[in-house]
Every structure is written in C-alpha cells, then in structure tokens.
Design goal:
The complex is a heterodimer of chains A (229) and B (300). Chain A is of the alpha/beta class and 229 residues long. Chain A has helices spanning 43-50, 76-80, 98-108, 113-126, 142-154, 172-187, 199-205, and strands at residues 2-12, 16-27, 32-37, 58-63, 66-67, 83-87, 160-164, 191-196, 208-213, 216-221. Chain B has a 4-stranded antiparallel β-sheet with strand order 2-3-1-4, with helices on both faces. The chains are: A alpha/beta (229), B alpha+beta (300).
C-alpha cells in the first residue's frame, strides 16, 4: 500500500518552485495506475519521493506503513528493494551484456551465483529475450533495451514496479509490447505505477488514471483515459 | 562477503579505467613511502651507531702521581657513585704499557727492551668509564674532574654528539617532507577516486535504484584506494629489500675504517620496522584518499 498524505515538495533553488502541493493519494496492493500530466506537473517528483531520493517538505509518504522520509541513509538500500524501476532512457550498463545487466541487479542484493544462473535466463525468457543474452545494449532495438530494463527491474521480485515514461522512446508496436509485459507482471501481483505522456497507451489499457497539474491531483478515475482526464 | 571477489574485481577495473591518474597517484605513493623507508634506514643505522658509540666510547680517568692502590680504588668507588655509570674498567700502569707495546712495537719488540727496567707509562693507570647514555658524558666529566685524586679526564664526544645532531636534523627534515608528501598522496588518490565516481555516476545511480547497499557502492572505491596503497607500499619495500644490502656493501667497501668501528643493522632488523609501518602507511593513505573522496563526491 502506497500513501501520499498531504505531501508538498518545494525546491529551494535560486527561485522557489513548488513541485508538489498538498497531494494525497492511495494506491492499493496489486493496482495498475497511470499518473499523467504535463511536464513539471510533479509526476517525477512523486517517484523521487517514493524512492527516498528526495524528502517531502511537508506531509508524509508511506509505503507498507514505512514513513519514507524518516528512513536513515543506511536503511534506504533495503527499502528500495521493494521497487523495480524503469526509465525512458533505459539506463542499461553499456559495457555489460544483456545477461550481465540483469544479473547485476541480483548481485547487488547478494544473490548466490547458483540463484543468478537459474533466475536470469528465466526472466529473460519472460520478456522474450532468451536469444539475446550475450548481446550488448547497443546491439538491441529500443524495445529490446526497454525489455532488458524491465527484466532487470523485476528479477528480484519487487512488490512495486515504477515506470517513468517507459514508452517515451519507443514506436507504437514496441510501446504496446512493453505495456503488455507491465500488465502481465501486474496480473502476477506486482503493483504497477506508470508515469506517462503516452495518450494512446493510457486510452487503450483503461486502468486507473491519476491526472496531475501544477503539483496537484486534478482527477483520479478508475478505468480512465486521457479522454476523460 | 559473497560479493567480495566481485568488489575486488571492480576495484582493479576502476584503476585501469583511468590508468594515467592511477599511475600518478601510485608514483607519488611509491616516492613517499620510499622516502620514509630510506630515511628510516638511515636513522635506524645512526641510532645503532650512537648505541655503539655509547657502548664503546668511554671516559678515561688518570690519577695524581704516586697514589697508592688503595687511594686509586677509593677514586674508583667515588666515580661509581655517578648514577649513569654502566661499567668501569681498570687498567694498571703495567697493563697500559703492555697494551702500548702490542700496538706500537708490533714486529719490533726488541726496540721496547730499552724500557725494561722503567715503565714509561708509570703514571698511566686509569679507569675507563662507560655510561648508559652518552648524552650525560659532559656532566660526568665535570663530576669526575671534581673527584679528589683525579689528574686528567680524557673523553671524545665529537662522534656521539655529531651523530646525534645528524639524526635530529634528518628526523626533523624527513618529518616535514613526509607530511607534505602525505597530503599530496592523499589528495591525489582522492582525485583518482573522484574520477572513478564521475565515470561510474550512471552505474552508481542505477545501483542505488536497484537497492545496492552503501557497502556495495563504496566497496570498490575503498578497495581501489587500498590496492593503490598496498602497491605503493610493496614497490619501495621490494626496492629496499634488494637495494639496502647493496648500498651497505658499497659503503663498507668505500669506508672500511668507519665500518670497523660501527656495525650496520641487518636487512631483517630494518624490515621488522619498515615493513609493517610502510604497509600501514600505504593502507592509511589509500583509505584516507578513498574515504575523503567518497564523503565529498558520493551522496547517500
């Protein structure tokens, strides 16, 4: 369960900027939620707050009862293992093979070599990349790279999957493929939160849609789309 | 612990990612520790020379003419009251003459026969007094001169004082140079680690999102400093292991007279001190550089 309780976030730069303004939101276990809105609406700030990368200026962010803003630095790594994250620009390690990119996520959490050898090929098969294990990211299409990133995000079995503009660099066919994979991980119990501008995907998949504008939630609709946001 | 081989591998990889900066750090580290090793070798030997001097250079005390054996013994008892006296050796006038003959009439003993009936060193009975600490020599000489029956006090403090002075100057100079070099070495390693952090920033960002522990992220950076530190200590030690005996042999050949008086410390004795201290210095500089850079450039 994820809860934003009256969360505000202000960046104190040269000019004060309110990224989030009194936001309250609950996301239940196993939900699939799109968070949509223009650039600067506060979507990415929500992800940063969830990951403990930023702290709220006021209010609290709770994940399974844990107050994220109160976590100490040394507690953050273990907390972050509840999440898998994918980004618009994939963020793969270019000098690692597909297999090593995914295995890296397992190694980071201290998985045994035996477990890595068993788990990584299975996940790569789940995302349809079993034949690309020895390829490097530069040898793959955008869609394939995002699927590697997705495999890396789910290989440790996270409870929550955060996708920040996952289809932003993909053509429609690959976008749909990635969205289908996200949906399948959601069906197996993972809570999925997708931050996106992709009108077509939001309209096509008819999930819960939270719309943000200037740091505030302006609508929250079950089985919504851009058409009724 | 499962990830330790991986982290060590990453530490080595980081070094090769910016080999130029790594080599420069290593070079300064080698220079710093070599300077320490060489200065230690010189100072340990000087200390050993001073020890030799303290053990072997005594103060010789001669007595008033015509003193009886009892009176001379009484002077000896008085001299022994000085607190720092390590040992005393009495040489009678006859023994002094015998020793003199051995040295100066060697091979021409017949020349000494002219003195058969009268000992030319009749008034040369003496006490040779050895002190525990040679720096007390002046004080003891002043003490001995006041003892009744003492005619003359011979001593040589030139060697001991000279060595002590050289040691003090060398120690101060080395400490100053080492302090500067230590700062340079730590900042160069820190700079090298900062390069690694910058080159791996994307990877580090990904690691954070995946849930890598601080140890997993920082481990390779700490190990990078540690590896440079260990090599920085090992290279000068190897150089000293082979170089020290060669230098000692060369000095012994050139200054045979000096070597007869003073003994050099053995390589093993030298390494009992410089090996652990050099490794500790290398590890210390490497760790300090790493941790400084991590604290400055790597936010949690």
């Amino acid at each position: 369960m994820i809860e934003f309780r009256r969360v505000s976030k202000t960046y104190n730069g040269a000019v004060k900027a309110d990224a989030l303004n009194d936001v309250s939101l609950s996301i239940g276990e196993g939900e699939f939620v799109f968070i949509i809105g223009d650039s600067g609406a506060g979507k990415s700030t929500m992800i940063k707050l969830l990951m403990g990368e930023e702290k709220a200026s006021s209010g609290s962010v709770l994940v399974d009862g844990i107050n994220v803003g109160k976590l100490k630095n040394w507690q953050l790594p273990r907390y972050r293992r509840h999440f898998g994250v994918i980004f618009q620009d994939f963020r793969l390690l270019q000098n690692y093979t597909v297999y090593d990119n995914v295995a890296f996520a397992q190694r980071v959490v201290g998985a045994s070599r035996k477990r890595i050898q068993k788990r990584v090929p299975k996940i790569l098969a789940d995302v349809g990349l079993e034949t690309k294990q020895k390829s490097f990211p530069a040898q793959l299409s955008g869609g394939e790279q995002q699927r590697v990133a997705l495999a890396r995000a789910v290989v440790n079995g996270p409870q929550y999957l955060l996708a920040d503009e996952p289809t932003g660099n993909l053509d429609p066919a690959n976008s749909e493929e990635v969205m289908r994979l996200l949906e399948s991980f959601n069906r197996s119990g993972t809570t999925v939160i997708v931050v996106t501008h992709d009108v077509a995907m939001v309209d096509q998949f008819r999930k819960r849609v939270v719309t943000m504008k200037e740091g505030q939630i302006v609508s929250d609709i079950r089985e919504g789309g851009y058409d009724n946001a | 612990m499962r990830n330790f081989p991986y982290l060590v591998g990453q530490g080595f990889k980081s070094i090769f990612r910016h080999i130029g900066a790594s080599l420069f750090s290593l070079l300064i580290m080698v220079f710093t520790i070599f300077l320490f090793d060489a200065a230690s070798a010189i100072m340990l030997n000087i200390s050993s020379f001073v020890r030799d001097a303290e053990e072997n250079v005594g103060v010789t005390i001669f007595f008033e003419e015509g003193m009886t054996e009892e009176e001379i013994k009484a002077v000896g008892t008085e001299l022994a009251k000085y607190p720092d006296v390590a040992r005393m050796k009495f040489t009678s006038a006859e023994e002094a003459w015998e020793n003199y003959k051995k040295v100066y009439f060697a091979g021409n003993e017949h020349l000494a026969e002219g003195y058969a009936d009268s000992n030319p060193l009749a008034n040369s009975a003496s006490y040779e007094v050895f002190l525990n600490d040679i720096s007390n020599q002046q004080d003891f000489v002043a003490f001995a001169k006041k003892v009744k029956g003492v005619r003359q006090v011979n001593f040589s403090n030139v060697v001991a004082e000279g060595l002590s002075n050289v040691e003090a100057i060398l120690r101060t100079g080395t400490i100053v140079i080492l302090a500067v070099l230590l700062i340079v070495a730590v900042s160069l390693i820190s700079n090298s680690i900062a390069l690694t952090i910058s080159m791996r920033s994307e990877e580090i960002h990904i690691m954070r999102y995946i849930g890598a522990s601080n140890g997993f992220i920082r481990g390779p950076l700490v190990l990078e400093g540690l590896i440079v530190g260990l090599f920085g200590a090992a290279i000068p030690l190897v150089a000293m292991w082979f170089g020290y005996p060669a230098v000692v042999a060369s000095i012994k050949e050139k200054y045979a007279n000096l070597v007869n008086i003073f003994g050099f410390i053995s390589r093993e004795e030298l390494f009992r001190f410089i090996a652990p201290v050099s490794v500790a210095l290398g590890v210390g500089i490497g760790l300090a550089g790493s941790l400084f850079s991590i604290k400055k450039h790597l936010k949690a």
